[in-house]
Structures are given as structure tokens and as C-alpha cells.
Write a structure and sequence with these properties.
five-stranded mixed sheet, 316 residues, single chain, alpha+beta
Length: 316
């Protein structure tokens, strides 16, 4: 009687299970990084592997130099320093239950779509949480008063009125006025950014100063949403730009400095796969755990308040 062939060293879905999720994870992380826009422009802190639900970041007060008089003691500087607390309270996941029949009959492109879609969904959520921090720019708050002090287009001096969407198209004057507000607040020249919605990109393409080579730069800087360089500030476009509250729901541009916001990651994007026999399907989940906070209020543009990030309301 013939003996059935029974290999003992073959690679099965069980022995190769640790390799299968790794492929998914690599593809998802790649898609996640590719689709991030604002998260690549602000301060990022790695909190991975550490315990706790709050990160305390010192926010010291800038000191001033004192004149030294002959035969007198130096002038001592003393200040009660403050801090910024970042709550690690944002846990988002993306899950798919893939039945065996679908996995057996579907093309490999199905996995490619799911991994790309998972990376995009998580990246969009992180960017959304960061973009909405712009509501505190210009002294504004969330809710009905969001962007209450946002400076709009036109001459760049008119303030956005709460409960009234008096936005106007973005202009060169408004951009220059916003840059001046950052300068007046002693915000560092480097590491600034200008995030705009697609409607404002359309407007910018019609401004002669923007299309001039001197302002655009080398003309081929297209990476992760970057569409050019304006007055030395990289310009990024995102369909995820925030909207004002109330009727009209104008879109919002944000101009700020890297230190205006912080993203703290406790659990980076990870992927897990588990076979569910009761469903004859594979459960695929990708998730991330993080926190965001406005870090340096003096680093983005808004009203006459000291700020390092400022908001400009523009038509949707």
C-alpha cells in the first residue's frame, strides 16, 4: 500500500502568517506617509513604547537682554514657565473582513486597494485633527466661534466676523499682510508653511506674482501636496482644509510655523490579521494612537493677538 506524501517542512498559511501581515503593514505605512500633508509640516514627537496618556511639553517665556551698568550686579531674569499638555486620546482604526471566497477569487489588486485605502484613511484623520487646531488661531475657538477672528482675503486687514461668512477670494495683499503678522510676532523665517484648499490654488494660479519664476521656485517641486514656493514659504494644497461654521461654510487657509502644532505618536500605524473561523474570513485591521495640540500660539496667523499661525477664510 502506497504511503501518502506528507511534507513536514512546507510553508503554510500558519507558518507564514507572520510574513503575510508584514507585507500589508509595509504597504499601509507607505500609503500613510504618502498621503500626509500637514503632519509632515509640524513638529512630531515619538512617544512609542512609553506609558501614560499625557505628554508635558515645556513652553518657556522668551527673555530679554539687559544693559550692564558699571560696578553694578547683572539683572536676573526669573519667570514662572508654563507647559503644553498633549493628551494621547485619538485612537482610530480601519478594518475589513475578507471572506475566503473573496480572497480566493479576487485579484491581487484587492489587497493593493485595501492597503492604500487604509493608509489614506488614517492619514486623512491625522491631518484633519491637526488642521482643526487652526480654529484656535487668531484667538478663535472651536464651535460657533471657530475662526471668529480669521483674517480674510481682499486687502488682508478686514477681520472675519463671527456668525457671518464674509470671506473673499485670496489676494496677494492678504498673503503679504499675513506674512507680516508672522514677522511682527517674531516668528522664525524658516520652517513656515502655507496650507490652502483647492479653490485657493485656483486663485493663486491666476496671480501673476505667484506664477513668476522668482516666486514659484524651480517649478517642479511637487511632493506630498507641495505646489510651489511663495515669498519663501512653501505652499501646500489639501482637499482636507477646514471649513468655517455657520451658513456658507467658507474654506480656510492656514499660514504658520512648524512649532505652532505638535503631533505625538504613541502607536504608529500598525496592521494585524486574524482568521475568524466562524465567518470563514480574515479580519484585517490597521490602527494608530496619537495626540495633537497647539504648541506655540505665537507661530500661526490670526488677529492682532500674538500668534504663530493665522487663518484666512476664503470661498469654498
Amino acid at each position: 500500500m502506497a504511503t501518502a506524501f506528507s511534507p513536514s517542512n512546507s510553508v503554510t498559511t500558519t507558518t507564514g502568517a507572520t510574513f503575510i501581515p508584514e507585507i500589508w503593514s509595509d504597504e499601509i505605512v507607505a500609503a500613510y506617509k504618502k498621503n500626509l500633508v500637514l503632519a509632515n509640516l509640524v513638529m512630531k514627537m515619538n512617544f512609542k513604547g512609553k506609558k501614560g496618556d499625557t505628554v508635558h511639553i515645556p513652553a518657556p517665556t522668551r527673555g530679554s537682554a539687559s544693559a550692564k551698568a558699571a560696578e553694578t550686579a547683572v539683572t536676573l531674569i526669573a519667570a514662572t514657565e508654563s507647559e503644553v499638555q498633549v493628551s494621547i486620546n485619538k485612537h482610530y482604526e480601519y478594518s475589513r473582513l475578507i471572506e475566503d471566497i473573496a480572497e480566493a477569487q479576487a485579484l491581487n489588486s484587492m489587497r493593493n486597494f485595501y492597503t492604500s485605502d487604509a493608509g489614506y484613511a488614517l492619514a486623512r484623520q491625522v491631518d484633519t485633527d491637526l488642521v482643526q487646531l487652526g480654529r484656535s488661531a487668531n484667538g478663535g475657538t472651536a464651535g460657533a466661534a471657530a475662526y471668529a477672528a480669521a483674517y480674510i482675503g481682499g486687502d488682508g486687514t478686514t477681520a472675519y466676523v463671527a456668525a457671518s461668512n464674509n470671506e473673499s477670494a485670496l489676494t496677494d495683499a492678504a498673503i503679504r499682510r499675513t506674512i507680516q503678522r508672522l514677522d511682527d510676532n517674531d516668528t522664525p523665517m524658516d520652517n513656515r508653511f502655507f496650507l490652502i484648499p483647492p479653490s485657493s490654488r485656483n486663485t493663486l494660479m491666476g496671480l501673476s506674482r505667484y506664477t513668476e519664476q522668482a516666486f514659484v521656485g524651480n517649478g517642479n517641486a511637487i511632493r506630498t501636496g507641495e505646489i510651489g514656493n511663495l515669498y519663501g514659504i512653501p505652499v501646500f494644497t489639501s482637499s482636507n482644509a477646514d471649513t468655517t461654521s455657520g451658513s456658507g461654510a467658507a474654506r480656510v487657509c492656514l499660514m504658520g510655523h512648524k512649532d505652532s502644532m505638535v503631533l505625538v505618536e504613541q502607536v504608529g500605524v500598525r496592521s494585524q490579521v486574524q482568521y475568524k473561523q466562524e465567518y470563514l474570513a480574515t479580519l484585517f485591521t490597521s490602527d494608530t494612537l496619537y495626540g495633537v495640540a497647539a504648541l506655540r500660539s505665537a507661530a500661526s496667523v490670526g488677529a492682532a493677538k500674538s500668534s504663530s499661525m493665522f487663518a484666512l477664510a476664503v470661498p469654498a
